[in-house]
């Protein structure tokens, strides 16, 4: 995934209580009767999936909506308001986890592979996932095993003795899921094929496309985004295998965010209508849906348990 499976400076919350007429988001992202008083601060951090400019191009409209709807000042880790700056923080996986656990960041997009660690450390479960309002269906993706279409590799076992690119050690679809699921299709990581870390799903796809890796384990949604952007031609890539569906990136808040502010962020997030650019990058998705952790993260948690069992058996 590029990542995948991405936040609060220890700023004291002002503890403002909403007036009885809680603001209700109106079409276009404005809020009727926005909460009175000074704006509360919420620090956001994003995964290093895209460059800062592209990240703000996709999610800046959402940040603006939160600001208007919830009377919130969305800031980066340096205390700059993202209403006046595009300097959003894009962090590696370890930095992203540390920023949430330390309270330096209060709002973050995280890939599924990080969620078990965060929940296990006492952080709240994710609250929002992209989805389709009409169907109520959350966004999901598959782990896919890809190779060049002109390569001799047509089924997974053709890759025995070869190198397969994984993305990063903590990535669900880029490393944890392949280690948990590939043995059932005849590919045991580090035993009958060599694992090579590419440092990102996009790098894995690009590496396959240009012949650096015979094959790669990547997230289907991140791969499709590269196709939409024109970074890779779908006709040049063959999918050898795909997994059952996984939950995609979700949004989470830090445990120190006040219940009142959490409720405000959730309400405003669920009222948000995706921008045209975001709809293009996430086909079929037009809003945020609530996360039902036990249901939506069942496959992720299965991979996590298998990973823990494998590590304990070493």
Automatic annotation (TrEMBL):
<dbReference type="Pfam" id="PF12974">
    <property type="entry name" value="Phosphonate-bd"/>
</dbReference>
<protein>
    <submittedName>
        <fullName>Phosphonate transport system substrate-binding protein</fullName>
    </submittedName>
</protein>
<feature type="signal peptide">
    <location>
        <begin position="1"/>
        <end position="25"/>
    </location>
</feature>
<keyword id="KW-0732">Signal</keyword>
């Amino acid at each position: 995934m590029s990542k995948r499976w991405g936040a609060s400076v220890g700023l004291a919350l002002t503890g403002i209580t909403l007036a009885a007429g809680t603001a209700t988001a109106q079409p276009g992202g404005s809020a009727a009767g926005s909460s009175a008083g000074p704006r509360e601060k919420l620090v956001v951090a994003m995964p290093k999936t895209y460059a800062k400019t592209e990240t703000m191009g996709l999610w800046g409209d959402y940040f603006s909506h939160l600001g208007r709807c919830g009377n919130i000042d969305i800031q980066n880790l340096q205390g700059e308001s993202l209403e006046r700056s595009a300097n959003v923080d894009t962090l590696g996986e370890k930095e992203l986890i540390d920023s949430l656990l330390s309270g330096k960041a209060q709002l973050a997009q995280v890939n599924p592979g990080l969620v078990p660690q965060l929940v296990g450390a006492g952080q709240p479960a994710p609250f929002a996932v992209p989805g389709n309002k009409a169907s109520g269906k959350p966004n999901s993706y598959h782990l896919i095993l890809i190779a060049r279409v002109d390569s001799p590799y047509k089924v997974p076992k053709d890759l025995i003795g070869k190198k397969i690119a994984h993305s990063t050690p903590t990535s669900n679809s880029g490393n944890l899921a392949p280690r948990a699921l590939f043995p059932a299709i005849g590919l045991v990581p580090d035993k009958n094929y060599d694992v090579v870390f590419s440092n990102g799903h996009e790098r894995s796809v690009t590496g396959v496309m240009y012949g650096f890796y015979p094959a790669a384990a990547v997230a289907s949604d991140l791969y499709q985004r590269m196709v939409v952007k024109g970074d890779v031609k779908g006709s040049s890539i063959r999918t050898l295998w795909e997994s059952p569906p996984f939950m995609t990136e979700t949004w989470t808040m830090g445990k120190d965010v006040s219940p009142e502010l959490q409720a405000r962020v959730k309400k405003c997030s669920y009222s948000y209508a995706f921008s045209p650019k975001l709809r293009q990058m996430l086909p079929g998705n037009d809003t945020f849906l609530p996360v039902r952790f036990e249901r939506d993260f069942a496959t992720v948690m299965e991979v996590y348990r298998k990973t823990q069992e494998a590590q304990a058996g070493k």
